[in-house]
Amino acid sequence: MTNPTIETIANTKIDVLIDSKTLQARITELSKVITKDYQGQDFLMVCILSGGVMFLTDLMRQISIPHQIDFMAVASYLQGITKSEGRVRITMDLLTDIEHINVLLVEDIIDTGYTLKHVLELLNSRSPKSLRVCTLLDKHERREVDIKLDYIGFQIPDKFVLGYGLDVDGYWRNLPYIGVVHT
Ligand code: IMP
Ligand code: MG
Questions:
Q1: Is 111 a catalytic residue?
Q2: Does residue 128 line the site of ligand 1, with CB under 6 A?
Q3: From the CA of 158, which ligand is nearest?
Q4: Ligand 1, residues 14, 48, 76: which to mutate, most atoms within 8 A of Cβ?
Q5: What is the pLDDT of residue 4?
Q6: Sign of the torsion formed by the C-alpha atoms of 26, 52, 78 and 119
Q7: Which of 108, 116, 178, 181 could form a disulfide with 18 if both were Cys (CB 3.0 to 4.6 A apart)?
Q8: Which residues does residue 166 pair with via DSSP β-bridges, in sequence order?
Q9: How far apart are CA 3 and CA 128, in angstroms?
Q10: DSSP H helical segments within the chain, as ranges?
């Protein structure tokens, strides 16, 4: 959708794919596993802006052990370059020096996997003590690169989803559920 106006957005019918209650119940489960896995260890949750922000804040509220957070932003693909050649461009870097730090990367969705692959390479080059990935959504059938996901909220079909942090042209991030445009 190009140049959406507020009116067309307001009139677009969205079908619910994962409702708010289901999302929150799964986040509770994930937070319990993460709390158990990082027991007694200091760790930093790194959120990739902007899509991961709702997931991060809901997840961290339920993690009952001490941890810190930081943010980074990436532009997924450079213009004119195909996905496979593309390198992510860091548009906002971490404030934290992650050397010798346990890092848990919090992502909204893994699609082809290229963005994550490049972010992992970059973070690994900074010698963290450990580096794991927690993604809310995994579009597994779209994967083009081999990457390890440590914590997965939901496997979803190959559909373009929005809401709960995920956007189309910057909108719909506020929806408390994951949806798809009604067709
Ligand atoms: P990948 O590099 O192909 O894995 O793409 C990852 C990024 O593309 C995600 O972090 C999202 O920003 C975006 N993306 C992929 N699929 C969707 C979707 O269904 N809805 C919204 N954004 C998506
Ligand atoms: Mg993202």
A1: yes
A2: no
A3: 1
A4: 76
A5: 65
A6: negative
A7: 178
A8: 163
A9: 41
A10: 6-11, 20-37, 53-61, 114-124
pLDDT at 87 exceeding the cut of 90: no
d(CA 109, CA 153): 10
Nearest to 52 by CA among 34, 28, 27, 32: 27
Q: How is the chain split into domains, by residue range?
A: 41-172
Q: What's the whole-number mean pLDDT along residues 128-142?
A: 97
Query: Per the residue annotation, which of 111, 138, 146, 167 is the catalytic one?
Result: 111
* Confidence check: pLDDT of 38 > 60: yes
Reading the block at residue 105, the tokens are 């990367």
Verify whether ligand 1 is closer than 6 Å to residue 38 (CB atom). no
Q: Which fold has domain 41-172?
A: Rossmann fold (3.40.50)
What integer best gives the mean pLDDT of the chain? 93
Cβ pair 51, 166 in contact under 8 A = yes
Share of the chain above pLDDT 70, in %: 91
Residue 167 CA: which ligand 1 atom is closest? 21
Do strands 102-110 and 43-49 pair parallel, antiparallel, or not at all (unpaired)?
parallel
Length of the chain in terms of residues written: 183
